[in-house]
Amino acid sequence: MTARSLQASEATPLRADELELLGGGRVAADAVPLRLRGVSKRWRSDLPLVLDELDLALEPGTSTWVGGRNGIGKTTMLRVAAGLIEPDSGRAEVWGVAPTENRTRYQQLVSFLPAGDRGLYARLTVRRQLEFWARIAMVPRDRFRACIEEAIDTFDLRELAERRVDRMSMGQRQRLRIAMTFLPRPEVVLLDEPLTSLDTEGGVLLQSAVAELLGRDGTVLWCSPSGEHLDMTFDTHLMLERGKLVSA
Amino acid sequence: MNDTITAGNAFLAVMRRDLHVYLSYRTRLVSQMLTALFSLTLFYYVSRLVHVNGFGSSDAYFGFVVVGISLISVLYSCFSIPELVRQELIAGTFDRLLLSPFGAVRSVFAMTLFPLVYSLVLATLTLGLGCLVFGLHLYWPTVPLALPVMVLVLLAFVPFGVLFSALTVVIKQGNVGTSWVVALLSIVGGLYFPVSLLPGWLQTIAKIQPFTAATDLLRHLLVNSSLGESPETSLLKLAGFAAVLLPVSIFILARSIRFGQRRGTIIEY
After folding, report:
1. pTM score
2. What is the extent of the structural domain holding A27?
């Protein structure tokens, strides 16, 4: 039983022995693709909490937008959700499992696009970058080549495939970064200001990738300061204010 | 089984990535070979000029020092790992490694592969230059044994690079201490002269660290020089360092990454 089929069968109560093992850990009956439980984070003891017992639960096949002014903590929230940093209290869970409990499985299910233009090897070509990422994302051998070609096609990188990253424009690099984010076919995608440097065409490609993810019951959490995100429609709109999420 | 193969492929992918980055700098090998050639030329003429007690001939000292020069590239490659980690931190690619199923600890270990293999190639080329240009005589009956011993030497030395990488993750500086550690090891390891010339207290340091055992053993195998201690003792010393320090370095690296994640400083550079 996969995590998704577990979710689909939630209408009928699950017996304990029906609960799916997720990489060695039992999935709780209330498990969702991504949950932040009472997450608090403070950068220094003399500074206010960036995240203050923040709660968030994302259902399968849903998209959520989180806005808020610069420096309010959106990126911190995404970093906690991605498993990059640990909260002072509370926990991030993917299908009930925290990154500290099964990091490999957690990172297989979650993919994070950080803001900015970092995270690329300047001297590698687009294809080699994608191949490297697919390898360390531990994409199975039988899917490896198909994943690379699919990422190249989905994000219109065919003409750039043999070009080195340091010879590409910012928008082209962003398209590559997004391609890397979607390449391993994660269940949860965390996007931090994904439209940065993207032209309209790039935005449309991103929109299609998000639609495809939602179509296979994936989950998207999209953060940006304002609500300008093309024609994207989200199931939930939230704002981060004083460390807590409120309806937008 | 499949996971092991996938992880193995990830290991090799890191090495392949480093190879591609290396090849994108086309003049690097030529430049490094020229450096080796100049060092060999310098010591070739020093060996002709100075008579050192304990060496029967100028050629004997030259053979002694060529092996030392070859080994220093291996030593440098081990201590280059922290700087590589720092470059990953600056480029934001360390985050990606950390957020990959392969993980940061395995990635850092995989990052040691290319520099180590490359340093072996460079050491071999240096020895080859010594033979072809300066008439160095290798002791061929035991030369093949140098390869497995070199692998053991690498296993004993990689943990030092990993430990400094752990420090880099915490303090965000790549070369703190590494240059003076390499300089100190080149002195107490007897790279350019026999450790018997050193004062007593430095000879003690020479005996307890693994580099002296490594250079002694490899010199014995490559140019048939005499050994300061039995080969078994040298091999045990190297194996002991590898067996103890490898798990310790893995543990400390994992702890330093976790420390950065808790403090939130893992994202800083």
Report:
1. 0.89
2. 3-120+186-247
